[in-house]
Amino acid sequence: MSKEKFDYFIKGEKGKYEVVIGLEVHAQVLSKSKLFSGSSTKFGADPNNQVSLIDSAFPGMLPVINGECVNQAVRTGLGLNAKINNYSVFDRKNYFYADLPQGYQISQYKNPIVGEGKVLLDMPYGSKEIGIERLHLEQDAGKSIHDMDPSNTYVDLNRSGIALMEIVSKPDLRSPDEVNAYIKKLRSIMRYLGTCDGNMQEGSLRADVNVSVRKEGDKNFGTRCEIKNVNSIKFMQMAIEYEATRQVELIENGKKIDQETRLFDTKKNETRSMRSKEDAHDYRYFPDPDLLPLKIEQKLIDDLKKSLPELPDKKKERFIKEYGLNAYEANVLVSEKEISDYYEEVAKLSDKKLAATWMMGDLFAMLNDRGLDISKSPISAKHFAELVQAIKSGEISGRIAKEVFEIMVESGDNPKKIIESKGMKQQSDPKELEKMINEILSKNKDKVDQYKAGKEKLFGFFVGQVMKLSDGKANPQLTNEILKKLLKG
Amino acid sequence: MTDITNQSLNEIIENVKTKKVSSTELTKAYIKNIESAKKLNVFVTTTFDQALDKAKQFDKKPNFDQLLPGIPLAVKDLFCTENTKTTAGSNILNNFIPSYESTVTKNLWDNGSFLLGKLNCDEFAMGSSNETSHYGNVINPVGDQLVPGGSSGGSSSALAADLTPATIGTDTGGSIRQPASFTGTVGLKPTYGLCSRWGIVAFASSLDQAGPMTKTIKDCAIMLESMSGFDEKDSTSINKKKEQYSKNLKDNIKGLKIGIPKEYRVDNMPKEIDELWEKGKKILKNLGAQLIDISLPHTKYALPTYYIVAPAEASSNLARYDGVRYGYRSKQGKDLIEMYEKTRSEGFGDEVKRRILIGTYVLSSGYYDAYYLKAQKVRQLIKKDFDDSFKKIDAILTPSTPSSAFKIGEKTNDPVSMYLNDIFTVPVNLAGLPALSLPAGVDKQSYPLGLQLIGKALDEQKILNIGYAFEKNCGFKNEIKKWWS
Q: Which domain holds residue A127?
């Protein structure tokens, strides 16, 4: 397979520009309760129904670390091949906002729980390693609702205090496609680990995007802008395109890029300045005196390491080896743990290669059409495997299989039942077929003569007649063979 | 019987246990005292009806096995009390009624006592004279022109004026020990982490510690035993077995080594303080203790270190008082920022604002390293001084304060001279150690003076024992005339 070449540059009049991207991903930790309180983290509750005295910062309330959130951060760090720090510190990031009850966010500043790591991306031009700078734990803020009342702002503190992992990448990404692959890979790893559900619609995964540009071949980075709080991959890609183009235009016009924080306007598809570096908050970070430094025993790290599930990179290797899949197929089938589980169940009961082809074709198309996750698939893995086997054994043709598939989706029945009750079994008896074909040939003597005179296009006509007569059940391969034989004679 | 309210807590408990007095009679006696002591401005809130109910309940079904059977107690208004207004001496919490009870007060109630009322204090415990309270200054029963010390000034005054049999305060830089010294009472700041901070309005989290204020050492031991204990809701709480301080109280201190730090002899210290210290040394020596000269070389940096660390933490701790969820909110303000500004300008007093400004400044980028980080390093050195000394001694004896109670208004316009009052007490908070202030004598105006005993971490029993022996041999008697009633 010939590899494509990396080719994402912004073209200016004075040359090509490389886009340099770094991401700060905020991933909501999967945990029953919040980072420092016992309140529930369930999504979708009525406003202010999952708020403790700690989350709403009443006088004298104190944070107590939720051990499960620590374990989740360690698991994630291990999944990112990162260094786990045995000693980390929670700091206060001080700023005033109505949905920040304490007047500070508890975060980790100088001593994060997880240090450097890496993530591997499969790009059409080969495998690419993206460096992870750090991962730290922090509290989420509440939500300000400005559009419920013309003169008041409402505050919902259900999110206040929920644990987030901020995963900071190195500036190693070079295109919107790489950002897409990176986010998907991160999401996949965390979903495998069960440390974040990766649900972008519910805000479980969002990112601040740092973008700068430089002339192709330059060694030094340009001045970067940070685009805050983008909550879909598509918007990230659009924001990067817009922002990189904006920066190139500035440079080409001899202007300076200001280091600033920008917002992406999804309606206008543009980024807008939010605040300049001069206006940046002074967060007055200092170690939170209500919390002792977080010390993690090596044994806990080792135990968590032992209990990690097989992660996508490993599973991909295994799928190639064990199931004879190609890299592309393996990559697609390991992208989600649920997909890989489904595939393995199907592959155990049917032809491994054919199963992959049919899953990635008709099954995925159907799920995609209906906006369903594989966990909600109307066809169970067992039924799907039966369908694959029916094709493999020649019981039904691929064309009939598509019909059976549609009926399976609608009825939820198993394929055997459908094939039998609708008499969809393939006609593979050569004698029966020969009888049928002879009948057709004798009814169409004129066409047979034309064919023999050299009008070979008519072969398709005869096939069509066989299919018509057999209600599409004639084994196409056998039909071809017998037709050829009889037409020669 | 004679006036029961001028007895010690221990004596009162004995009287309740032997049924010489009922909890109801006791409670009524205190209510009577409180009602005739309004001039002292000690209480922010009284809970008489509730207290009488509790007293009646106790008398109906008494449990004499408790540490504080049927004892009414007033507490500093920094402790959150369920369904009872808690102001922290501030306008910003003027209307704040907690739905929860602080761990320390809950421990007291679980041991048989109940709430008599909430005691005035400096706003957010920031002050050394109880003059920063939004609810007006408290008057020291020792003299009608005198401050009671601070920040637990309402507590010290109430105790000295027989308005509560014992009380509790909080001590961030001396807020228990200095008022105890100014009123001739006993005050203990326990080891950091011995008493839970949960439910106490925070001033400076790494320094705040609740402690007992009592008339005698025995009372102090009873109260400490009742209020302390591990609390999983406070991450800085120490997980250790509960001790029976009162039962284990001993007055034999023979052979104990008492350190005398030369750095506590400061310039311009009144002669009387020096004489008091000498007197203390002599008493301990006569009791068989061995006096050892020690050096705590970084003592002189303690006060500036404290006045960086404490405001820094306070500036962040007080950010939650923004008018959004509870407490005072200004009716002015066109937008969020203006609402914040007006609420906090109108809600906080001058001293609190001063410390928020200092704290915000020392944490700001560009100043953090020079102030906050430096202060943290010095704090480690101060702690190390103590650690080194405690390798060869059992306790340290110093004066509690550089002077006796001063006059109301005398230092209000000079914050630095006010801060200097804490010079002997702050090093202990920075090091997280326990320290006891004992009444030890009077100055020439007959104002009480205290001595301070500093112990190793978690060595409360030892300093209580030393204090117990000292108390028996000191001959101090607090003679307060009830001029206010």
A: 9-305
